[in-house]
Amino acid sequence: MSAQGRILVADDDAAIRTVLNHALSRAGHEVRATSSAATLWRWIAAGEGDLVITDVVMPDENAFDLLPRIRKARPELPVIVMSAQNTFMTAIRASEAGAYEYLPKPFDLTELLNIVGRALAEPSRPNAEQRAEEQFESMPLVGRSAAMQDIYRMLARMMQTDLTVMIGGESGTGKELVARALHEYGRRRSGPFVAINMAAIPRDLIESELFGHEKGAFTGAQSRSTGRFEQAEGGTLFLDEIGDMPMEAQTRLLRVLQQGEYTTVGGRTPIKADVRIVAATNKDLRTLINQGLFREDLFYRLNVVPLRLPALRERAEDIPDLARHFFQLGARQGLQVKRISATGIERMKGYPWPGNVRELENLIRRLAALYPQDEISVEIIEAELRNGEMAAPFNGDTLSKEEQSISLAVEQNLQRYFASFFGELPPAGLYQRILTEVEYPLILAAMTATRGNQIKAAELLGLNRNTLRKKIRELGVTTHPAPR
């Protein structure tokens, strides 16, 4: 049951003030509302209110300028910050400035009432002191979708802790970017950020890479070498692709997490571990546990705060912002800034993006580098997306030509595709997307095999020649003329 209290509301939007007044009053709270930051501050300075709900942008003062004064005058007063500027940096600034909670607009009233109840039931603790304004100039994460708002709020809560975080998500969703944000805006930002990719290191060298080794510990160890744990002392150690860590190294990592110390390979003196661990994986670790490939006890040690990054297809509304962001990054490297037509953006929103944000960034770089026109048409987008599909390597199991049937290859690919959603369902419209993806390479292969002879290709495919011509035109298949 929510604790009833006196709520001070500040928002320039009269409709929002009315909605909040009605909802909070019905919940049994006493509400005073204003559109002025000056009035809000006068109430607070006079000792009024048990909780504050305020918008960031006010006519007379920004809430981020007001928050430090509130924290100094009444550090126990919880402040809930609302904003339509739904960016990662807004959430971080709210947390750093001492806000109890950050809510992006539009917000859910039930969620707001739950937050108010929690804030009134337990005293608000002042957060770490606000950092300098210049530290917020760069935005490490881009996107205003609902999926990203959840990520921003979770990150804001984690900044002032040393809790171990497990970041899940498909390849290319930005797991290392999130890990770096946790470090650069967290308590350990003055320390080093050290990343290690488990999939990129030979299995017999992982323990040495992590914990270091002494001279003579093994053949070729000609001198003492520091490991990543020692290099990350006082900072953050990012363990990427943790699902690829061999069992032997998992056992040693578990011991470090349990005991807070480690020994180098060949060493005897324990070394205290003073690092924050952030791990990441694009695999389902629970499946690996069932297969005996990952330790369950290590999973629970690492999975203290699970954070799943959404695939790009789950936040397609962020594509315009991301495209502008990558064009601007390219401009710093001498590439031309372009704009994408409205129909081109819609086509991009409907594309499944198997490579996620990394694939989108690569596309934007190609568009900036290869095309002279200022506006990129939907036809160019179509051609580039198809080229990307054709260039993408097949990740199936290695099979001989006799073993690898088309049906089996598609089945394996679909199994991995469904597994990438970690138990959830992919976006609707899968049937037509699969048919479209298969049709283009099929017609291209037939045209290539017949050296561009449409009559032979139509016969090979079992299609009417006019139908084939129509497909070539619709799909944008690049054909080569038959030799004379």
Present the secondary structure layout:
Elements: E1 6-10, H1 14-26, E2 30-34, H2 37-45, E3 51-55, H3 63-73, E4 79-83, H4 88-96, E5 101-104, H5 109-121, H6 146-158, E6 165-168, H7 175-184, E7 193-197, H8 206-211, H9 228-231, E8 236-240, H10 247-259, E9 261-262, E10 271-272, E11 276-281, H11 285-290, H12 296-302, E12 305-308, H13 319-332, E13 339-340, H14 342-350, H15 356-370, E14 375-376, H16 378-391, H17 406-419, H18 430-449, H19 454-461, H20 465-475
Parallel strand pairs: 1-2, 1-3, 3-4, 4-5, 6-11, 6-12, 7-8, 8-11, 13-14
Antiparallel strand pairs: 9-10
Helix pairs in contact: 2-3, 4-6, 13-15, 14-16, 18-19, 19-20
Mean pLDDT: 82
> What would you say the CATH architecture of the largest domain is?
3-Layer(aba) Sandwich
Into which percent range does the helicity of residues fall? 40-55%
Provide the CATH top-level class of the largest domain: Alpha Beta
What topology, given as strand order, has the largest sheet? Answer: 2-1-3-4-5
The CATH topology of the largest domain: Rossmann fold
Described by strand count, sense and barrel closure, the largest sheet is: 5 strands, parallel
- Taken as a percent bin, the fraction of beta residues is 5-15%
Low-confidence stretches: 124-139, 390-404, 480-484
Provide the domain count: 4
Strand element count: 14
Cα-atom radius of gyration: 28 Å
Helical/strand content category: alpha/beta
Coarse shape: globular
Q: For the record, what is the CATH homologous superfamily label of the largest domain?
A: P-loop containing nucleotide triphosphate hydrolases
Distance between the termini: 84 Å
Q: Helix tally?
A: 20
